[in-house]
Amino acid sequence: MPTPRHSGTSRIDTRNQILSRLTEAEYRRLSRHLEDVPLTFKQTFYEQNDRVGAAYFVEAGVISLITVLADGTTVETGTIGNAGMAGLAAFLGTERSPEKAICQLAGKAKRLSGVHLRAERRRGSQLAEILFRYTGAVMKMLAQTAACNRLHPVEERLSRWLLMTLDRAGSNDFPLTQEFLATMLGVRRPSVNIAGATLQKAGLIRYRRGKITVLDRHGLESASCECYAHIRDEFARALDRP
Fold first, then answer.
1. Angle between helices 114-123 and 126-151 (to 10 degrees)
2. C or N: which end of the chain has fewer Cβ atoms within 10 Å?
3. How far apart are CA 50 and CA 46, in angstroms?
4. What span, in angstroms and rounded, lies between the C-alpha atoms of 97 and 50?
5. pLDDT of 3
6. pLDDT at 17
7. Residues of CATH 1.10.10.10 domain(s) within the chain?
8. What stretches in the chain show pLDDT beneath 50?
């Protein structure tokens, strides 16, 4: 993921890569409406088809976007770390979320109400301009993930998912149960066990007591389908534009 570009005298006190790209004056104007909130594991921010009253600019941790089918089956369609924001429906004014959002890895975020988000959109602020570009990247992620879940083998999908989580977690180690991973990938647990064992045997990851450690990032990129690179590059373009 791209890294924020700060000057040595910047007073922008955020690790979120959307907010960090605001000018100091814009961030200062917006900051009085931002509320620091914790992200706790498995916390639900909103359910599918719920009204979205606020957005969360992730500082640390990971939020998963999950599609829930009528029979209760779930699959992850997107992940959000400190390069992103959960709650686009609040910004776009669509009111209801097309997916469920839960905390995958604990951390913290800055919360901004939907009222203030829509005010930023109407005024055409710098934040709104960045969020419109970010929306395009999220749409690419959702479409690419849907294609990946339908067409690619579990081992490649697992590699893609681990790389995306690695980028957003900012650490080679993160807590993860096979049951949770199976839910995220929309497959049965035995399929995850086999795919994980293959990656571990190849020396790419280590799985022990509910924690995954990425040992060989480059090897994991080679094991992944092309979807990881497409999604990564789309977010880089959205956030790196001057």
1. 110
2. C
3. 6
4. 6
5. 46
6. 94
7. 153-224
8. 2-9, 242
Q: Return residue ranges of the chain for CATH 2.60.120.10.
A: 19-149
Question: Are 170 and 106 in contact, with CB atoms under 8 Å apart?
Answer: no
Per-residue pLDDT at 12: 78
Contact 233, 137 (CB under 8 A): no
Tell me which CATH code domain 19-149 carries: 2.60.120.10
Residue-level pLDDT at 132: 95
Rounded to whole angstroms, the Cα distance separating 23 from 1 reads 20
Q: How far apart are CA 45 and CA 136, in angstroms?
A: 22
Distance CA 223, CA 158 (A): 9
CB 36 within 8 A of CB 108: yes
Please tell me the CATH code under which domain 153-224 is placed: 1.10.10.10
Tell me what pLDDT residue 210 has.
83
